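Case study.
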Amino acid sequence: MSLQESVALAQSTLKEQPWRLFASQISVLVRTEVRRTLFTRRRIGFHLLAWIPVLFLLAHNIFDRHDIDPAQIENNTLVLAGIIQLYYFRLGIFFACMGVFTWLFRGEMVQRTLHYQFLVPVRKEVLVIGKFLAGAIISIALFETAVFACFCLTYSRFGSAGRSYVFDGPGLGQLGSYLLATALACLGYGAVFLTLSLLFKNPIIPGAMLLGWETIAPIFPSWAQRLSVTFYLKHLCPVNLPTDGPLAIFTIVAEPVSPFIAILGLLCLTLAILVLSCFLIHRLEVTYTAE
Amino acid sequence: MTPDSRQIVFDNVSKFYGEVLGVNKVNFSLEPGITSLVGPNGSGKTTLMNLLTGLIKPSHGAIYVLGLTSQQPIEFFRQVGYCTQFDSFPPGTNGYDFIYWPLRLHGFGRDQATKLTNEALERAGMAQVARRKVAGYSKGMRQRIRLAQAIAHHPSVLVLDEPLNGLDPMARAESIALFGAIAKQGMHVIISSHILEEVDRISDRVVLMSSGYVVAEGQIKEVRREVRDHPMQILVRCSNPAALASAAFELNHVVEAKILNDGQSVLVRTRDAGQFSLLLNKIVSSGLLEVDAVAPADDDVNSIYQYLIGSDGSPT
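After joint prediction, the assembly is written out as follows.
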């Protein structure tokens, strides 16, 4: 078959697909999954992971009001950068995505309800995409809100000086970068954990290995670093943390790349992992006794 | 076997869970009507149904449902409804949502999905309690709401795994009437049960299963005849196996008489164990040989038959 024939075949195959049906199925999957995941009691831990820094900053603002010096804005900007880069990107979002995305399929196996979704006229790939989007919406909504709340609490205590930093200075740009990086972190970690849940019955050990990999990736060659989510997130962070001391391994940027490349790279990595999930889902069988 | 657009075809299907046998070398095709899969617990009925509906994949062979396979999910699952034995539900769901949202995944619009949901709830007798949480349902109600979900999209093939479990006599009668009505519309209804009596009155055909194998298949009368005519194996340990084998061959109902390697035993396959016993008594009393032991060699298979269709083999 020539290249032209292959392209023509691919085009006709794509045209024949019921895209409207796929879209409506994805919409239904997202709606049911979001309702089921976001508002259940067993998701309290997941909410805590997002809101703990917010609660700390809130307590700091309420109880520590004597030291509000506009000169401290730069210092607080570094503290906010630390919270977002060291806590949210490396722990909070990581573990929340682990909980949300591994539960999308593995949880259904544990609850013995996966067969309901395997017995409807939905392509398995559509199921993966629908569930991934649901997980992404849940985690992005929660962590974007939390990061935004952290940002507001950090600068609101400085009054007009804080407002000036946000609206006339670099504040809004930093907020935009953090929100973008947060969304990308949720997508990247989400895709990884969704795939791990299709590969392993117990995702805790591979999750711990992934956490280790994300931590030590900076000491590996640059091609290997590109296989970690934090590699791309670092390049989107608007504030650089000090690179001295034991925390340097979390902050050092071995090979700088432009933000555009970082965004594109992380999206490509996410897409590649999702494609792998679409292959893996076909191997999944409903054998609850093995769970 | 070639796929037929009206038949359900199992083409040399085997399923192994690691080294554990699920079902082995299953070959049959089913026409529309009610088919009962009957066998004791662990005989492979659920495995066969899960294979049929694509929840698990065969290790060998292929399955065609109305010419489709589960690899074509959009077309396949519009034709197939499966009421599983898994007594589990999405957390927090109520009866109505349990049927409505899968219908939306089928691609039905809001109005159509609402209409089909209400219709299915009516048919299963669950309309009054549809808005209650499923977690508060009795076992029978949970069984019926699963049945309602399986029939809601008007499938052409309805697969029911032990559908009468947990139902009271009234609900059983209603369910059986519902299965009959569905089958009369030209649909396939496949029902599993470990009690043949429960389903044989409404079944057009029966598939008997044991230890992962299909041991008999066909119309209920044929299966009963097949079981009645099934040769029984008897192992006789005696002083003169050659003489016994020779005398056994004189009888019409003896299919096979084989002297085993130990040189002291004969394995006899007969369609009339009673007549063979009479012969054995006669030979022993004539002093031609001494018998050390007589034992049925396939007691398991026979006991399964007895368990499944009753000792006298007469229609109930």
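Observations recorded in class. Chain A has one domain: 21-290. Residues 21-290 of chain A form one domain. We will return to this complex in the next lecture.
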